[in-house]
Amino acid sequence: KGYGHAYLDLTGTSRLFGPAVDVAQRIQRESSDRLGLPLAVGGAQNKLVSEAAAMIIKWRGGAVPRPDCSGGAEPRPGGEDILDIPIGTEARFLAPHEVTLLPELDPRMRERLDDYQLDRIGEVQAISERELALVFGTAGHLLHHHAMGIDPRPVLPPSVKAEFRAAHTLGDDSNDLSLLHRILRHLTERLGNRLRARHLVARRLTVHLAYSDYATAKRSVPIGLAALDVELWNAARRGFALARDRTVALRAVGVTVDRFLEADLQLELWEAGETEKRGNGETGGPSSAPSRDERPAALQSAMDRIRGRWGVKGLRVGR
């Protein structure tokens, strides 16, 4: 309580600024000298483990209440407020600590872990991902990854919000499903374009409804690392059907996506063509066509290029 936190991604900067630990020490020193603000710094390859390391420093210093933990990594010599976790040691570092150290641990899941007498992260690590999923459902997969120190969440700059939102207010209140579905498609296309432009995918989509009598409703649906328009639109229609439980006309519709991860999408329509073969008069075409799994992303890339040149009216989507 009363303590904020921030993440700093130093990937690829070692030649420019030196090792990440040295950068952390300089930031600590400047914060103390210029602001009088002490910092606890956790260094690791992802947000989850770095946050856990910083929290352990606060526990040791009494800055925040500390669960009964034993063992774990020790601070670097000469750096009492810096805890550096080498790559490959994340699971071993987390193992002796209480499961409360894991981020976003739902209180209901914490109670169920108590029921199974799973108090330490290492005890969760000893259970396979499949077995955790059988007990906790889809949340068991995330619990397994977090317990092993796996966290693909990107470090986003302040200019990138934790969620993207698009909304539309109708000129006249309406219950026309064909009109409302067209609006949903337009909103999800805007969100998909923003996600792809920032090389992100979203894991959750939420539909917000405002009725003509000023009542509101919303419903969230999980999505499987989606960034393509068709994926988002299908999720929006599911969320819309679940959220719309009244026959009152709608005044406004909104869609948000959040829980971002960095994307590694291959959105090329086809591989670069072979150069013209000299001597036999043959001209090269595309070296290979997209596979069945790649076709949706390839089509999306082509659509983005058309819209980029001709605007949103460059394409008309059929039924």
Architecture overview:
The chain has 319 residues and is an alpha+beta fold. Helices cover 39% and strands 17% of the residues. It is built from eleven helices and six strands. The chain has helices at residues 14-17, 20-35, 47-61, 90-94, 107-115, 121-125, 129-136, 138-147, 177-197, 229-243, 295-310, and strands at 41-43, 82-84, 163-174, 200-211, 216-226, 250-262. Strands 3-6-4-5 form a four-stranded antiparallel sheet, covered by helices on one side. Strands 1-2 form a two-stranded parallel sheet. Helix 7 packs across helix 8 and helix 9 (177-197) crosses helix 10 (229-243). The chain is globular. It starts with 13 loop residues before the first helix and ends in a 9-residue tail after the last helix. Mean pLDDT is 81; it is low at 62-79 and 265-287.
Concise summary:
This protein is of the alpha+beta class. It has eleven helices and six strands. 39% of the residues lie in helices and 17% in strands.
Instruction: Give the oligomeric state.
Output: single chain
Q: Strand count, sense and closure of the main sheet?
A: 4 strands, antiparallel
Weakly predicted, low-confidence segments: 62-79, 265-287
Instruction: State the shape.
Output: globular
H/E order of the elements?
A: HHEHEHHHHHEHEEHEH
- Could you tell me the radius of gyration in angstroms? 25 Å
Q: Kindly report the average pLDDT value.
A: 81
Distance between the termini: 52 Å
Count all strands and give the number: 6
Helix content: 25-40%
Strand content: 15-25%
- Total of DSSP H or I helical runs spanning 4+ residues: 11
Strand order of the largest sheet: 3-6-4-5
Question: Structural class, judged by helices and strands?
Answer: alpha+beta
